[in-house]
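Recap from last week: sequence in, structure out.
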Amino acid sequence: MGRPYKLRHALTWLLKASTGLRSEMFNDIEPEDIKLKPVPHLFLTEAKLSYGSSTFQHYVPIHPDLLPYLKAYIQIYQKKKPFKRMFDNDRTGKEMNKLNVKTVKENKKMNFQSGRYFFEQYTKWNTSMSDELRNYIMAHAIGGISADFYDNATADRIYKKYMEFMKDVKFIPENARRKLDKLIKELT
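Predicted structure tokens:
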């Protein structure tokens, strides 16, 4: 039998790197916050955003690379309830910090916060994603986001804008994909 915590840690890191969400927000995510229609996204209510500087509910797109693994994890979590929380910021952070993974550019040890910074830096320097969209997805301070942007935000609109810039990004290398596939097979 595989270990579900490995899948949880991997998905937490991948969600962080693909959305830039704050670590603390992961503790409150439940299966009902993960929506697959009309487009894959997290729907975060004001209560779920209480840790950050944004207090408006919003839609956080889920990258298609993560979908098969996230769907499998939701089924495992709902069926077996292996954990009290679906995601656990503290445990994943401790596991991530044990690894001796270095950043490519600066050769510095990566930590759990590196996923959030990856998203921010990648979208800032490698895409033409607007600051407003980046700030919205990352739940940054609302001062950098117009009221009009919030008023017109829909899951579909945010996802389409996100995918304009992130469609060619491959978050899961082939060797990691094989390991995740094997782990899911063991867990189901």
